[in-house]
Structures are given as structure tokens and as C-alpha cells.
Specification:
Length: about 70
């Protein structure tokens, strides 16, 4: 099965979150840790104004697959 890798960036003006669909294993850590930002049933599914920069950084750091990262 060939998994298409879509890369999207989301920013709040302070940080940019990068999501790589091909790496995502759908662990749900992001949704469980910060459901006000990570909303898989909505589009866009990441709403950066739903949490603080520190909350978002902490949640992205818990992504086990590396599908979510912070752009430097």
C-alpha cells in the first residue's frame, strides 16, 4: 500500500507546526492531550488559536511517529 505523504503547516505567528500525513500512525496523543487545537473531524484539523504556544509545543513533543513537528 502506497501511502501518500501530504505535508501541511499551521502557524499562530509564534511557532509553526508541520504535519506529515505519511508518518502519522493515528495514535491520538495530540487529540487526547490538546483537543482544543487538534480536531481530526474538522478542516483544517489543527487550529492554532485553540491553545498556547507552550501547550502546543508540549503536545507536539509527545507525537510518537514524528508526524507532528515544530518548524525552526
Amino acid at each position: 500500500m502506497d501511502k501518500k505523504n501530504i505535508v501541511k503547516e499551521y502557524t499562530n505567528g509564534e511557532i509553526t507546526v508541520v504535519w506529515q500525513s505519511g508518518k502519522c500512525i493515528h495514535s491520538g496523543n495530540c487529540v487526547r492531550n490538546l483537543p482544543t487545537v487538534f480536531k481530526p473531524k474538522e478542516s483544517p484539523w489543527i487550529t492554532m488559536d485553540g491553545g498556547s504556544t507552550e501547550e502546543i509545543k508540549a503536545t507536539v513533543a509527545k507525537c510518537p511517529s514524528g508526524a507532528l513537528s515544530i518548524k525552526n
